[in-house]
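Why do we bother with a discrete structure alphabet at all? Because it lets us treat a fold like text: something you can write down, compare, and reason about line by line. To make this less abstract, here is a complete entry for DNA polymerase epsilon subunit B. Read it the way you would read a sentence in a foreign language you are learning: slowly, and without expecting to understand everything at once.
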Amino acid sequence: MSTPKARMMAVRRQIVRTFKKHQLTLQVDAMEYLEDTLEQQLVPPEDMNDTLENIALGYVAREGLNLVNRARLENVLESMQKWTHHLHEKPTRNTLDPHRSQQTLTQSPQKQRRRPSDLGLDHGLDSDDRMRLDSMRDRIQEMEEDHYHDMGMDHHDQDEQQDQEQQEEEDDVDITELLHVVDAFDMPRWAWASDVKTFTRSDPGTTTSSTSYETHPNAPAPSTNQVIAAAEEKTAMFRARYQLLLQRIMRNECFAPPVFTGGMEQDRYLKLTPLKALKGRCGERFLMFGMLVQMSGGKYCLEDADDRVELVLDHSQNSAGLFTENCFVLVEGQYTDDNVIIAETIGLPPPELREETKKVFGNIDFLGAPREMRSEEQLRVISEEYEDISFVILSDVWLDQPKTFTTLRTIFEGYSNSTLPLAFILCGSFKSQPFLYNGLESAQYRDGFTALAELISEFPTMSYFIFVPGPNDPWGASILPRPKIPDFYTAKVRQLVKRSIFASNPCRIKYCDQEIVIYREDILNRLLRNCIVPPCGDVVIQKQLVRTIIDGAHLCPLPLTTRQVSWSHDHALRLYPVPDALILADKFEAYNFKYQACHCMNPGSFPTSDYSWMVYYPASRRSDICQIPKPTR
């Protein structure tokens, strides 16, 4: 007996297959609406194909657009009143067409083909739409009948053939082809263009600084990883951060101006005031947005695109978050005669769910991963069906410590005797002490990777091994993003481990419909040391860290004097849209929780946390903290 989940997945596949046949692409909200409607109205399974076929044809006839969103789909279904009435009556095979007799159904063992008009689906369409719909239906049916007649098939055989082809397509899925690692230096750069109200491409004009071979096609392409940029890039970097957050704020329902002035809606509307509009308005309270900047003498000011104003933070109440110089905040306070703002509250900009961002900018490829032939809905179905797929995440894999190899051997033995993960994500540092640039250090560092390659090669595995550099690894000059570990040190790994991928820090994984961000940085301690105001004591510090990063849409909300960032590649540190999973590999204790539908996790430091690690399951979007069981005495 099929489970409700299996039936739902079967219906979803039918929807995708039918709409794809008519060159229609369903947005997520339209897919969910159609699934809910079919479930609520109890459409019989034997009538599902015909019902979906007629809905798709009705949509094409009425809308004539390839992109199906919920609003248009609702309009089409509402206009087909007979169809709605037909669903509410919960029809059986004998009542779908009141003009067809029981004798006709009995005499014809083949599946009855019905026009949209047979089900009342053309109700609400004008004569031209009805003629166009019937013409398309006839053309499609004739083409199908000719094709299957040439193959000696009737309609029953045709349905079986379609089901068989669909099953073969699902069985032929090579899950490894749906895994892609995106290097930070390969991500496209998008900038907000306020004149056209959208993002425009503005890639940095850099060239490849080095050439190297990759051992697998899923590895990142050669990167344009020059970190030195022109002086104007610094201003452009902060302006891009500001404009990205501002456009997101202005689309938030709390900041959207009411359609009609006056009334209760006007009181609920939060209005941002540009700093240049403060002059001459002393004694009034304002809500402002900008970047925190330190002035001479240790004072702080708020700066937006046009002006800056001094802040007095002595009596401010801050919401959850870690506020440092160069982070972007909302400030509410009173403007005084001294041209300063007495800050009353400070908060982070409101976040935006990934699905909301994709509804607005779904046509923009922020990630830069290879394009998939399958739709996002098909990829989601595949991800949910492969429930055993997992990613094993370790941080601080010190290759200069013998205990590391002993523990790794135990871990590899354990996984080789059970379900293998799709990938092992090994984050640096791969050395317990900072790297010294001399011959002895280089030889020892290379020997560590050689020993790791020999250990991995002892276990026949089909898993990927993804390596992300850390603070002690060569040679990023402490500038983010950090390039991958140089090939000179990792040649043996590439030779013995064919599915090894050396990526930048940060980097991103595109798996099916999910985006996973990997960032190795001891970011929590850095933020705490640079806080302008004390952290809120009502929220645990890990959640304040995650909120600061996701709400601010940036992995490194620190001043450049504390953490240097490549001006021309700052876009690689953005979290926009919010990823499906965020790995903040930090030496802080391990944690995992969800925030804004993003699964956030920290595996902790492998050697200092008693050799624990994290396992992420993309099908269920959950993670587990794992540890080798200690022997009982």
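What the structure line is telling us, in plain words: The chain has 17 helices and 24 strands. Residues 4-171 form a domain with the Helicase, Ruva Protein; domain 3 fold (CATH 1.10.8.60).
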